[in-house]
Amino acid sequence: MQLFYEMLDGDILKITLDGRLDVDGTNAVDVQLTMLAATRRKAILLDLHRVDFLASIGIRTLLICAKTAARRGGAMVLVRPRPMVRAVLDRSGVSSLIPVYADTETALGAIARAGGERRGAERDAGDRKSSRRD
Fold this sequence. Notes:
By secondary structure, this protein is α/β, with parallel strands linked by helices. It is built from 5 helices and 5 strands. The N and C termini lie far apart (about 60 Å). Residues about 120-134 have low confidence and may be disordered.
């Protein structure tokens, strides 16, 4: 298993995994992937188009990374999984916890919309706080 990453516009980190997310593959990238998820980023796009197998240990790592990113104020999305990997994500329930997109453009659009919604919610919360002081 190999891991490649690059920064995209808008403080978005794109990580591409290449290989099998089985025991050996997950152990090869687990620490680096978790460290990348722990950085304060707007979002992480995890590109799975080169992953040809996903075992339960790989699922565990994906869930931990998504939770870590959320704690840091970001989000993680999965992009371009192969059909077999997508089936595992759906059957295991991961796709109901971590958004999965067929292509990068759709994922970036969803991240942009979510960022706008989050900023709107923060403004609304600020309005509520200020109205309590009156």
